[in-house]
Amino acid sequence: MPDTQQLLFALGIVVVGSPLLLTCILGLSSLASRKLSEEATTRLGHVTIACGLAASIAILLIMLAVDKRHIVVELGNWVVIPDEYHFSVKFVFDRLSVPLAILSYVLSGTIGAFASQYMHREPGFNRFFVLYAIFVLGMVVTSLAGTIETLFTGWELVGLSSVLLVAFYQERPAPPRNALWIWCVYRISDAALLLAAVVMHHLSGEGDFDRLLGSGAWPDEVSSLEPRQALLVGALLLVAAAGKSGLAPFSGWLPRAMEGPTPSSAVFYGALSVHLGAFLLLRVSPLLDLSIWLSVAVATLGLLTAIFAHLAGSVQTDIKSALSFASVAQVGVIVTEIGLGFRYLPLFHLLGHACLRTLQFVRAPTLLQDYGTLENAIGDRLPRVGAPLGRLGVERYRLWLYRWSLERGYLDSLLTEYVVFPFARAFRWCNRMERRWTDLLSHGPSRESDQVQSHFGEFEELP
Amino acid sequence: MNLLQLPWLELTIGLALIGSASVAQIREPNRAYRWGLAFTGGSLACSLLAWLGFYAEAAQGSLEGYSIQPWLFGDLPFRLDELNAPLLPAVALLHFLTALATARTHMRRYSVSWSLAAGAIRLATFSCHDPWMLVGLLAVATVPPYVELVSRRRPVGVYVLHMALFVVLLIAGWAAIDTAESVSSVRAQWGSALLMAAVLVRCGTVPAHCWVTDWFEHASFGIAILFVAPLSGVYAAVRLVLPIGPEWVLRSIGLMSLATAVYAAGMATVEREARRFYAYLFLSHASLVLVGLELQTPLSLTASLCLWLSVILSLGGFGLTLRALEARFGRLALVNYHGLYGHSPTLAVCFLLTGLACVGFPATIGFISTELLVDSAVDVSPMVGVAVVAATALNGIAVVRAYLLLFTGARHMSSVSLEIGMRERLAVLTFAALILGGGLFPQWGVESRRLAVERVLQPLREEAQIGKRAPKALDSAPSEPIY
Questions:
Q1: Residue among B158, B298, B333 whose CB faces A454 most closely
Q2: What number of C-beta contacts closer than 8 Å exist between A and B?
Q3: Residue B356 sits at the chain A interface (C-beta within 8 Å)
Q4: Residue B187 Cα, gap to closest chain A Cα (Å)
Q5: Is A145 strand, coil or helix?
Q6: A381 located within any domain
Q7: What pLDDT is recorded for position A252?
Q8: Where in the sequence is the domain holding A149, given as residue range(s)?
Q9: Which of A73, A325, B3, B299 has the least CB density, counted as fewest CB within 10 Å?
Q10: Residues A35-49: what's their mean pLDDT?
Q11: Largest alpha-carbon pair distance within chain A?
């Protein structure tokens, strides 16, 4: 008869192993050009997600039954260099990670079932489900990560699958263009997280959250770091969270993410992926407790994001963009709550918001039809409700504010004008200098690539 | 005596040389290709057996009688140690898979004989311990690319200037060190500086990097990959500069490499043509390997050696994927969307997989090496760590940008099948398997590279620095011959 510890270990393996198995089967069969049928893919998805969900719920029940708040499933060192470096794979089940893992499974399972109908006979059905599997794996790994390296692994998987899903409809230029923008933001976020991971390693000797955040169960850990150290790590993590959750000034990526299929928009950008930044801040909340400046920065950034997203969302003319800004606004509020020192409130807010937003996104394509049905039933137009803020202020400022909101705060334009273009211009200048130099040495034109013509369509200058 | 005790290393190099001479006699391209492939495959098999023999310690003390090296050189200048044991099969594999993935339409253009000759020189370089012989091999290795450019009637000015500079600096540098009284003498310091310059030129460090992009512009893609991807310049740095280079020399290499890593990554991000994009990606990664070497901590050296192996496999695979695309669509512009996914999804997946492996994506072979490199870089200086992270982030953006431009964004119409062929599939899937296998089970690779640092690099440097002995003795001759 296995004891509770062994049982929890086995269940923990099932929680993480289910999406891993799904990813391996779908990924390797695709790589070997032996794609599974739609039916087999759907069934496999259902079974693995159900197993993962059942195991997560079982862990939650056991935790409640034996009154344990912090369970660690340690799989050992993935890589170890004695006395110098180790990469341990460790998963933590506590009051923060278990709800998010269950949420990930519930929403992914729901959307998986929805997508199997929605994507039926689409040419990219298999590709969608491969990316879906990678996404679920990334979410589960990130939720349960016990070390920052493990979290980074999941974080990257979520990022890549999200970007490829945005570019899912790949026969038009807009989806890949938006996917590239999102990837750039994600890389900034990933770079900040990687640096935070390394700094954590140096401060605490290893990347385990236990070491950095102190022993004890979330949210009662007490970190032994100095406030200055907490500020450094926390600031890096805040940049990572801002990129992933679309906080200002990175908010522009979320509406761009709506290029993807509705199921992925719903579960990934509306519900799960967009909350990862808030989750990260909750995970490292003991650091916020150590540094008042860090807490103020978090709260301020959250508040600014919420205000901006509310204004921008109020004037959007398509439902997916409006919903995406509504998501950002709520995430901003959640981050503000975290900065103000709340712990359970933002967690509940996150869980509730994710479920609501998934429902709204899934219903979005049929909303107009529903409106029509309602208007037919009542025999009149539905009443239009203006935004309360729209009635405030002087006409001149209202117009300015409207324009500012419509242009999404000019955030993307500013980033393009002051970051992307100068970067591209600087390196293209270097390119010209290199050309001059090689032309000089070759006594004539040195580049065959100048003669390379576009095979298809017109040239398009990319920023 | 068992099978592993045969002189597999000599057979690895010898088979490639014999193959080169034999294939040169065959005029019919398809037949020459088939024979060339057989010789390259044989060479790969021998290198794998040499590698197995080394780890099984089968050869110790039992092989001198079978080797022709004592008879030819009076010593064993070509042998395996912890450092080069896995590099040799990796280089042989790169040669074999490049030959295997050569499209039928390109067989006339792909010079099998010269490729085998260049392969033999490269394999000899990577197993050479004798400094002068290594200098000679590195110099000779610059000849086949020159022949390639001349035979294709392409401009050779940029290549010749840089390689002539490299060879002169290399010979002058080692001559100065060889004739110096001790490692700390002024002459040796000058020699180190010249060697440093030679290594920087060979690795394509800014400002001496233009030959790499020029080489990719004019050479056939397969030959171009084979010349740069094994990172012969890094091998020269490890064998010649690292053991005796003074701190300031190593620091200078590190700083210039760091600048190159970021610069080349930025250039890759805005590049408008696929080959040049690949060349910059290579430059950035070669520089990152050098950065790790010059940080001089055991962890950074381990990271650098891991990254080296990862770069050979992932950039090799990435290059072959690009080459397969070129074989179908010609030179590829990166200024508009091509939408090739629908025609060759396997190529698209392999492109992304190998590209992401280069930039250290989780579960690929580059992940742990990048982690280790960033970790050790931050340990030395936070700014170095930030620069390394910036370079990897930019490389990641460049790879995904290229993927999106090549495979998405449009619908490409074609009346013929453009799906990947069987041989190409085998080549890219082999790389994919190695990249994923090395990424999911990295411990063995890291351990092996760690041993290389502990048993080869650190002892060499410590002996040279503490003993201040003459550089001739830097050849790390083991007490017993190891194959």
A1: B333
A2: 188
A3: yes
A4: 32
A5: strand
A6: no
A7: 85
A8: 2-367
A9: B3
A10: 93
A11: 82
Q: What percent of chain B has pLDDT over 90?
A: 52
* Phi, psi dihedral angles at A79 (to 5 degrees): -135, 135
**pLDDT surpassing 60 at residue A136:** yes
Among candidate residues A315, A339, A367, the one where a domain is terminated = A367
CB contact under 8 A, B362 and A156: yes
Contacts of A180 in chain B (CB under 8 A): 397, 400-401, 404
Question: What residues of chain A lie within 8 A of the CB of B394, using their CB?
Answer: 187
Q: Examine the domain organization and report whether A187 and A308 are in the same domain.
A: yes
Q: What pLDDT digit, counting tens, does each position of B246-267 carry?
A: 888 888 888 999 999 999 999 9
The verdict on A353 and A462 lying in the same domain is no
Separation in Å, CA of A148 to nearest CA in chain B:
12
Residue A397 lies in a domain: no
Instruction: Work out whether the CA dihedral A163, A165, A166, A171 comes out positive or negative.
Output: positive
Residue A267 lies in a domain: yes
Judge whether residue B290 has pLDDT over 60. Answer: yes
Whether residues A343 and A414 share a domain: the answer is no
Asked if B273 lies within 8 A of A452 by C-beta distance, the reply is yes
Q: Which of A146-155, A343-352, B418-427 has the highest mean pLDDT?
A: A343-352
Query: From CA A185, how far away is CA A166, in angstroms rounded?
Result: 14
CB contact under 8 A, B371 and A424: no
What residues of A are in contact with residue B263 (Cβ under 8 Å)?
430
Q: Where are the alpha helices (DSSP H) in A343-449?
A: 344-363, 367-378, 395-406, 411-415, 421-442
Residues A293, A428, single domain; the answer is: no
Measure CB to CB from residue A446 to each of B155, B272, B329 and give the nearest one. Answer: B155
Using one digit for the tens of pLDDT, what is the confidence trace for B374-398? 888 888 888 888 899 999 999 999 9
pLDDT in tens, B85-124: 999 999 999 999 999 988 777 766 667 888 899 999 999 9
Distance from CA of B354 to the nearest CA of A (A): 13
CA distances from A192 to A148, B291, B392 (A): 12, 21, 12
The residue behind tokens 């401009």 is B155
Residue with the two structure tokens 């026969």: A171
Question: Six-digit token pair at B219?
Answer: 């050479």
Query: How far A434 CA lies from chain B's nearest CA (Å)?
Result: 7
How many domains are contained in chain A?
A: 2
Mean pLDDT of B456-462: 70
pLDDT in tens, B34-64: 999 999 999 999 999 999 888 886 555 555 5
Asked which of A367, A399, A419 is the last residue of a domain, the reply is: A367
Q: Confirm if B262 and B225 have CB atoms less than 8 A apart.
A: no
% chain B with pLDDT above 70: 91
A451 with A348, same domain: the answer is no
Mean pLDDT of chain A, nearest integer: 87
Q: Which residues of A touch B339 (CB under 8 A)?
A: 170-171, 456
Q: Two tokens at B84?
A: 């080069």
Q: Domain check: are A72 and A126 in the same one?
A: yes
Q: Are A19 and A55 in contact (CB under 8 A)?
A: no
Are A350 and A418 within one domain? no
Helix/strand/coil for B372:
helix
First vs last Cα of chain B: how many Å apart?
A: 15
Query: Which candidate in B269, B310, B336 is best for mutational testing of the A interface (most A CBs within 10 A)?
Result: B336
pTM of the model: 0.91
Collect all residues of chain B within an 8 Å Cβ-Cβ radius of residue A446.
Answer: 155, 157-158, 214, 217
* B:245-274 residues touching chain A, CB 8 A cutoff: 263, 266-267, 269-273
Which chain B residues are Cβ-neighbours of A438 within 8 angstroms?
158, 210, 213-214
Question: Do the chains contact at B272 and A449, CB–CB below 8 Å?
Answer: yes
Range name among A90-94, A366-370, B315-319, B356-360 with the lowest pLDDT average: A366-370
Residue B468: strand, helix, or coil: coil
Average pLDDT estimate for B455-477: 56
B328 and chain A: CB distance < 8 Å anywhere? no
Averaged pLDDT score across all residues of chain B: 86
Of all residues in chain A, the one with the smallest CA distance to B411 is A171
Is residue A32 one of the residues assigned to a domain?
A: yes
On the question of pLDDT at B80 being above 80, the answer is yes
A22 with A133, same domain: the answer is yes
